[in-house]
Amino acid sequence: MMEQDTVLQEKYHKSNKDKVKKFFKKHKPKKYINYVAIIICIVIFLISSGGMKRVTCTTLNEIAISILLAVSLGLVIGFLGELSLGHAGFMCIGAYIGGKVALLLQPYISSSFILLVIALIVGGVAAALAGVLIGLPALRLKGDYLAIVTLAFGEIVRSVFRNINFFGGVMGMDTKGIQYDVRKLFIIGFFLILIMLAVIQNIVYSKHGRAITAIRDSEIASKATGINVTRYKIFVFAISAFFAGLAGVIYAFCKNPTADAFSYNKSIEVLVMVVLGGMGNVNGSILSATLITFLNLKLPTWLPPNLAVLKNILYSLILIVIVIYNNAPKLKSFRDKYNFKNLMNKIFKPKDDASIIKNDANKWDRIPTKIEMNEVLSVDVNVEESTTTPDVDKGGR
Fold it and tell me: How high is the pLDDT of residue 375?
C-alpha cells in the first residue's frame, strides 16, 4: 500500500512538473521581462514620487515620452520593415489636438485626471486617423520614397499648426491651465508604456504579427499567400501613430507645445533610438530610449559652463561608439562572450552534467586539426588495383 502511494505521489509530482515545463515553454519568460521591469518601476515611483525632486520627475517624464515614441516607431521599422521619418508629425498632432480639446473642456470639467484621459483618447485617435490618411497613398511607396513622403508629412503638419492662430501660432499653445502635476504625470506615462507593450507584443506574437514580418521579409511572397499587404501596412501605421499621439498629449500636459519641438530632428532622434536598440527589438528600444534621453538631458549639467556648447558633439560621439560596438564584425566574439545573457546564465543556471558536456573543451569540434572539417578531401586511387577482380576463395564465396 505504501509503495502504491509513493508511486502515485511520484506520478503526481511528475505531471505537475510537466505542466510547469509546458507553461514556460508556451509562455517564455523573456517575453514578459519588460512587463515586470515596468511594473517594478511604477511601484517604486508610486512609493517614492512624493520625495523626488522636480528635475528627476521631469527627466522620468521625458524618458516615458521617448519610450512611447521609440517602441511605436519600432513597430513600423523593425517589424514591418518600412522607413518612416514623420513620427514627430504624429506626436505634434496628438499634442496640439489633445491639448486644445482639454483647454476647451477645462471650464466644464474640474478633474484634471479626466481632462487628461479625454485628451489622450482624442489626441491618440486624431494621430491614428492621420496615420491612416498618410498611409493610404504613402505605404504604396517603398524605401527612400516612403521616407521622403513621411518626412514631408511631418514638416507640413508642423507648418500648419505653426501658422494657425487658433493653436497659438508661432509662439505655441499655452497649456499652463491644464498642465498636470509632474510628480504624477510620469507615472501615468509609464502606465501608458505598459498598455503599449501589451498591445504591440500581442500583435507581434499573433498570426497578425507573423503576417507583418512576412511582409517585411518578402512583400511579393506575402501577396502570393493571400496576405492583404495594404491593409496590414495601414494597420501598423495607425497603431504606431496612435501611441505617438499619446506621447504628444503627455508632452502638452507637461510643457507648452511649440512647432519647433516637433521638427525632423525629433524624428531622426527617435529613429536613432530604434536603430541603436536593434531592429525589431522591443526591449532594446526601451533601453536605448532611456539611455539617449538621459544623456541628452544630463550632459549640459555635467559639463562646465564653458564646455556646455560641446554637448551635441559629445552626445554624437557616444552614439557613434555605441553603434560601432554593436555592429563591428571584429568585436563580435567579444560581444558574444561578454553580454548580459551570458552573465545571467553564469549567475542563475547551475552547472549540471549537460552544461559540463556542452562546455567540454575536448569536444571534437573544439580540437584544433590540420584539416578543416568542411574541406573536400582528395584520395589517390591506383587504377590497376581498382580494376583487378578480387580473388574468389575456394569456398565459392
Answer: 52
Question: Has residue 382 been placed in a domain?
Answer: no
By the 8 A CB rule, do 213 and 89 touch? no
Domain tally, the chain = 1
| Beta strand ranges found along 214-255 (DSSP E) | none
Q: What pLDDT score was predicted for residue 396?
A: 46
- The set of cell numbers assigned to 204 is 507581434
Long-range contacts, 157-162 (Cβ 8 Å, 24+): 157/86, 157/89, 157/92, 157/93, 157/130, 157/262, 158/88, 158/89, 158/92, 158/259, 158/262, 158/263, 159/259, 161/92, 161/96, 161/259, 162/259
Question: Range of 101's domain?
Answer: 35-263
Q: Which parts of the chain register pLDDT below 70?
A: 1-30, 138-139, 305-309, 311, 315, 339-397
Q: What is the pLDDT of residue 52?
A: 82
In-domain check, residue 240: yes
Q: CB-based contacts of 299: which residues, under 8 Å, 6+ apart?
A: 311, 314, 315
Q: What is the pLDDT of residue 296?
A: 85
Please tell me the predicted confidence (pLDDT) of residue 322: 76
d(CA 189, CA 65): 7
The CA distance from 237 to 184, in Å, is: 30
What are the residues whose beta carbons fall under 8 Å from the beta carbon of 217, sequence distance 6 or more? Answer: 81
Please spell the DSSP secondary structure of 22-64, one letter per residue.
HHHHHS-GGGTHHHHHHHHHHHHHHHHGGGS-HHHHHHHHHHH
Q: Are 156 and 263 in contact (CB under 8 A)?
A: no
Grid cell for residue 280: 525589431
Do residues 79 and 71 make contact, with C-beta atoms less than 8 angstroms apart? no
Determine the Cα–Cα distance for residues 236 and 80; give it in Å rounded to an integer: 8
Closest CA to 325 of 292, 267, 266, 278: 278
Q: Domain for residue 369, yes or no?
A: no
Mean pLDDT (the chain, rounded): 79
Q: Is residue 393 part of a domain?
A: no
Nearest to 65 by CA among 264, 301, 243, 276: 243
Q: Is the dihedral of CA 296, 301, 304, 305 positive or negative?
A: positive
Report if pTM > 0.85: no
End-to-end Cα spacing for the chain: 63
